Amino acid sequence: MIWRLLAAFYPDRPPDEIQRKERCLKETEDMFAPVVTAMYIRDKGVEASEQIVQQVDMMVDIMKDAFKHNLPKLSWMSAFSLSAAQEKLEHMVDLIGYPKSVLNSTWLDTFFARAEIDATDYLSNVVTQRSFSRHKEILQFFETYNRGLWNDFAHMPDIAYVNAYYNQLSNIMVVPIGMLQPPLFWVKPKSLTFGAFGIVVAHEITHAFDDEGILYDQYGTFNPLYDNKTIDEFHLASNCVRNQYSDFEVLTGVRVDGNITLGENIADHGGLKIAEIAYHEWLKSNGRSDSQLPAVDFTHEQLFYLGYALPWCAVHSDNMMRTHIVKDEHAPDKFRVLGPLANSPRFSEAWNCPIGSVMNPESKCKIW
């Protein structure tokens, strides 16, 4: 019995002191996620954070509007499926930034009233954390569900992290406060922001309509969104993306799995297409006026694509890449840039890529 208790509540202890500190820090952040979020917001400035959230809220509306106006242009979508997709987009809830409750000290004290922490007893704290989390989960069964609030996400540790996500089961997109900073979100120029942050938002919107998203309706209920003909046409169009990524060689003899990464690749392609449309419309409505970066001679469109590529700059070891290919549903960073851009006529035009070149192939994949 004691062994079962230890196995359930006492994780493997890292032998290295630095690793132990990292684990303790991570578990503390997970336990006190609302507190960490509040600390992060106050460090950035509450007023400044609110202003950025307002700007992001407007940008999300621009992205959703671009997606909405692009839907009727999809040749593979029937009239019935078009109506269903528009309805799902209309019902999508956006949670931007952070829940205001985390800045209320009284609320925080009440929320953590049951959590008794002992600075000298790690095992006791692990048990407390598991018990506390389970208690909160049980309480949710007796609460009235409101899809428009942060209830399902406010206590998660990644609100202050750089990670937007879409929840299929509730049709909710979360854009946490941690994302609202460079190299994703820039005050100016807007080209960089639309290219980096705008594509992330559009990527998450597209998840509502990828190979998994089409299995759920506007309320997040397991109910196929499209009719059978549209689903067949969608999968036919998706085959091009599947084959494209399956040809990408990460290391000698090691290729991207076009099946495992399909959903994310579809979202990447859709995100780029929608962000391109949104920035083009924004430029047009602002008389093609946008800020420029000093000392570099790039057009607005070129900066847009540089903004897209910038967050994916990374160097990985061969061993990490082999692990990534097996365990991650995302393509490696490099191919999340090259794949979508090679299918973009606007990119080829902006950078004058010759027809038939690697970044401007004559045959391009087109889903969105």
Automatic annotation (TrEMBL):
Ranges for domain Peptidase M13 N-terminal: 17-99
Keywords tagged on the record: Hydrolase, Metal-binding, Metalloprotease, Protease, Zinc
Entry keyword annotation includes Translocase: no
One Pfam family from the record: Peptidase_M13
GO cellular component, one term: plasma membrane
GO molecular function: metal ion binding; metalloendopeptidase activity
Domain Peptidase M13 C-terminal: 163-367
Gene Ontology biological process terms from the UniProt entry: protein processing
InterPro entries the record matches: MetalloPept_cat_dom_sf, Peptidase_M13, Peptidase_M13_C, Peptidase_M13_N
Cofactor(s) in the UniProt record: Zn(2+)
Family per record: Belongs to the peptidase M13 family.
Descriptive protein name: Peptidase M13 C-terminal domain-containing protein
Species of origin: Tigriopus californicus (Marine copepod)
Lineage, uppermost ranks: Eukaryota, Metazoa, Ecdysozoa, Arthropoda, Crustacea
